[in-house]
Amino acid sequence: MIRAVHPGDLDDLVALEAAGAAHPWTSAGIRDVLEGRFGCGWVAGQTHPVGHLLGQVVLDEAEIHTVVVHPDHRRQGLGRALVTHALRAWREAGITAVHLEVRDDNVGAIALYAGLGFEPVGRRRAYYGDCDALLMRCAP
Ligand SMILES: CC(C)(COP(=O)(O)OP(=O)(O)OC[C@H]1O[C@@H](n2cnc3c(N)ncnc32)[C@H](O)[C@@H]1OP(=O)(O)O)[C@@H](O)C(=O)NCCC(=O)NCCS
Known about the structure:
Blueprint: E1 2-4, H1 10-20, H2 27-35, E2 39-44, E3 51-58, E4 61-69, H3 78-92, E5 97-103, H4 107-115, E6 119-124, E7 133-138
Helix pairs in contact: 1-2
The site of coenzyme A (COA) has 22 residues, from strand 4, helix 3 and helix 4.
């Protein structure tokens, strides 16, 4: 099941970031997304969130900030389902471009995004200190 995030998800999302992200979003950063004017996101899970996607929409462009699936629930299609859900929602909302940044060595995430139509459009050298950021974009 995938549903839109709401402010009451904050603690679950902080825990998911800590459990699964290489560069976890802070509680304050997640709260800004949940409560901010431009933030949006979805969670996956039956009883409680085991994955989430957070992003923002400004005018007719969207950005994916983070996609995380709990390590115990990976390779079951949840990451693909979250990104697919976001792309469909953004397409229906008239979004024309979706952007993201991902560690250049994150083979799994890059495969996930490429499989859904994202293409590499640039790179930020040493953005993560030990690793470049690959910039990807797609038309939803
Ligand atoms: C990246 C991530 C969100 C994928 O979630 P997931 O639910 O395991 O992914 P899915 O099961 O939907 O996989 C969809 C496709 O992505 C690719 N993929 C996912 N994980 C992969 C891995 N470890 N190695 C290679 N390809 C992988 C595959 O093409 C896969 O399709 P397949 O299973 O048919 O081969 C998850 O690994 C994660 O939370 N990683 C840590 C956080 C992160 O790196 N987020 C992305 C950066 S913003």
